[in-house]
Amino acid sequence: VGSARDIIVNEKNGLVVQTRDSDALYKAIETILSNPEMATKLGDEAKKTITQDYNGEKEKSDWSKLYGEMK
User: Fold this and answer.
1) Distance separating the N- and C-terminal Cα atoms of the chain
2) What are phi and psi of 15, to 5 degrees?
3) For the whole model, what pTM was predicted?
């Protein structure tokens, strides 16, 4: 399973801010709260990313392929 950096694409399925940058975090939250259409779009894309790329079957298949390559 990847980290947030591997999953979130800024302004496609989430908003990325630098670690320990409270001003950037504040601005990102403010952006989401003031733009419901953007919030819905990001949420829909995030759900799509997770269901397509991080579902149990895909993970199982990826591990099986890796194991097969190690033989």
Assistant:
1) 22
2) -120, 130
3) 0.72
